[in-house]
């Protein structure tokens, strides 16, 4: 068979069959668990004014400078397919007038995101994320609870084994200012050994050097100072409060002083759930506190914290795909039985049972289709059955068959 001319665009893929069931299971489980924590689901547009992301991610970030799908629409406005979900949620909080009442807002979201990057295992140009945000809470308990929700979701999916929470603190503004000065002094002494990109970052945002993937930079980063010695008393107390609450929630963690967020509105907690089961792309869930982001969107100061996780990566960690539902197949034999078969199949569906009806073919062909569908049972209605108001109910697992009054089929199959 010749290969079709039209293929999915590079970096995109179809979700069909088992892959879709994995995908749906991840989102459905996250939706259910987050609701137990009081999160309500929001859905924001998949494209926004480009400024929503350039403000939130920073003009010099790799996402903004290299990866965003941005274009001018017919009205001349610059719009961008969303590369992540937090910025849209913060924009929605502001533009819907929700910053002054009923805070904190606990928001869950799920949907497609878009980044122009090199496709690889578990990473696509159109990918999907779930996320939880707590907007309007300044207490360390909010950080711990949003992390606990993410851990609970992983437990509910059965993928918590091998997943490790790594946490760090970015401190408050005074802590970061002192830490930034220490980093500048350290990296300036070895500036000739830094990559060109990190030399630029040294002037603009030295914290981002800590996140460099360049081998030369990594060698220097290994000996760089950590923020712990530069924390103010208040920042140290906040970090201690997060760790105490995580202990009470029963969430295991290890501290990693190299986890950073380079933009100024990030503060205090930064965290990642990592695994060795996905090769080089080991982060499955990541987030932190972003106390200044809502203000960047034009709102009032609104302390917030949250995380996002890639659905594709989470689904790859599932031991097995959820089984496809096994239908009941209703098979009319003869034209006269078709009306009764239609009544029967709708009655089964109204009772909450997955039901199929064979469209054509003799009994043998329709039974073969039932077996291909993995059907649990077959309901056979012919002229004799129709005359008596019954159906032949065949258990396709046990191979047994019984006569059941048509009106009792839903109860019997349930």
From TrEMBL:
One Pfam family in the UniProt entry: tRNA-synt_His
Gene Ontology terms describing biological process: histidyl-tRNA aminoacylation
Chief place of localization: cytoplasm
Catalytic activity: tRNA(His) + L-histidine + ATP = L-histidyl-tRNA(His) + AMP + diphosphate + H(+)
Official protein name in the record: Histidine--tRNA ligase
Assigned EC number: 6.1.1.21
Source domain of life: Bacteria
Binding site for L-histidine: 84-86, 115, 129, 133, 261, 265-266
PANTHER family recorded: HISTIDINE--TRNA LIGASE, MITOCHONDRIAL-RELATED, HISTIDYL-TRNA SYNTHETASE
Keyword annotations: Aminoacyl-tRNA synthetase, ATP-binding, Cytoplasm, Ligase, Nucleotide-binding, Protein biosynthesis
UniProt domain Aminoacyl-transfer RNA synthetases class-II family profile: residue ranges: 10-332
GO molecular function, one term: histidine-tRNA ligase activity
One of the record's GO cellular component terms: cytoplasm
InterPro entries noted in UniProt: aa-tRNA-synth_II, aa-tRNA-synth_II/BPL/LPL, Anticodon-bd, Anticodon-bd_dom_sf, His-tRNA-ligase, HisRS-like_core, HisRS/HisZ, HisRS_anticodon
Species name: Muricoccus pecuniae
Family to which this protein belongs: Belongs to the class-II aminoacyl-tRNA synthetase family.
Localization: Cytoplasm
């Amino acid at each position: 068979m010749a290969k079709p001319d039209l293929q999915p665009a590079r970096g995109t893929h179809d979700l069909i069959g088992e892959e879709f069931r994995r995908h749906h299971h991840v989102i459905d489980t996250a939706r259910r668990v987050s609701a137990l924590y009081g999160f309500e689901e929001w859905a924001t547009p998949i494209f926004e004014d480009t400024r929503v992301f350039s403000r939130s991610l920073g003009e010099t970030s790799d996402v903004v400078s290299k990866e965003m799908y941005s274009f001018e629409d017919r009205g001349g406005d610059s719009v961008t397919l969303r590369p992540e979900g937090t910025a849209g949620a913060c924009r929605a909080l502001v533009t819907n007038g929700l910053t002054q009442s009923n805070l904190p807002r606990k928001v869950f979201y799920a949907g497609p995101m878009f980044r122009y990057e090199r496709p690889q295992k578990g990473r696509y140009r159109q990918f999907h994320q779930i996320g939880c945000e707590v907007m309007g809470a300044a207490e360390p308990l909010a950080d711990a609870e949003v992390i606990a929700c993410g851990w609970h979701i992983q437990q509910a999916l059965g993928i918590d084994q091998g997943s490790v929470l790594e946490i760090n603190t970015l401190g408050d503004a005074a802590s970061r200012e002192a830490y930034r000065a220490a980093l500048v002094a350290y990296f300036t002494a070895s500036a000739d050994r830094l990559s060109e990109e990190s030399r630029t970052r040294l002037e603009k945002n030295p914290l981002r050097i800590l996140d460099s993937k360049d081998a030369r930079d990594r060698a220097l980063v290994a000996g760089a100072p950590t923020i712990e010695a530069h924390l103010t008393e208040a920042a140290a107390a906040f970090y201690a409060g997060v760790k105490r609450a995580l202990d009470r929630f029963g969430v295991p963690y290890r501290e990693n002083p190299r986890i950073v967020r380079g933009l100024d509105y990030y503060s205090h907690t930064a965290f990642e759930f990592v695994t060795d089961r996905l090769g080089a792309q080991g982060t499955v869930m990541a987030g932190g506190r972003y106390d200044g982001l809502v203000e960047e969107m034009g709102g009032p100061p609104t302390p917030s914290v949250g995380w996002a996780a890639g659905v594709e990566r989470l689904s790859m960690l599932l031991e097995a795909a959820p089984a496809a539902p096994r239908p009941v197949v209703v098979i009319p034999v003869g034209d006269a039985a078709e009306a009764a078969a239609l009544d029967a199949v709708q009655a089964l569906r109204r009772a909450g049972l997955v039901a199929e009806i064979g469209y054509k073919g003799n009994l043998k062909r329709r039974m073969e289709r039932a077996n291909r569908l993995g059907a649990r049972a077959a309901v056979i209605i012919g002229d004799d059955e129709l005359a008596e108001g019954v159906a032949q109910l065949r258990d396709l697992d046990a191979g047994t068959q019984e006569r059941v009054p048509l009106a009792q089929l839903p109860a019997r199959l349930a």
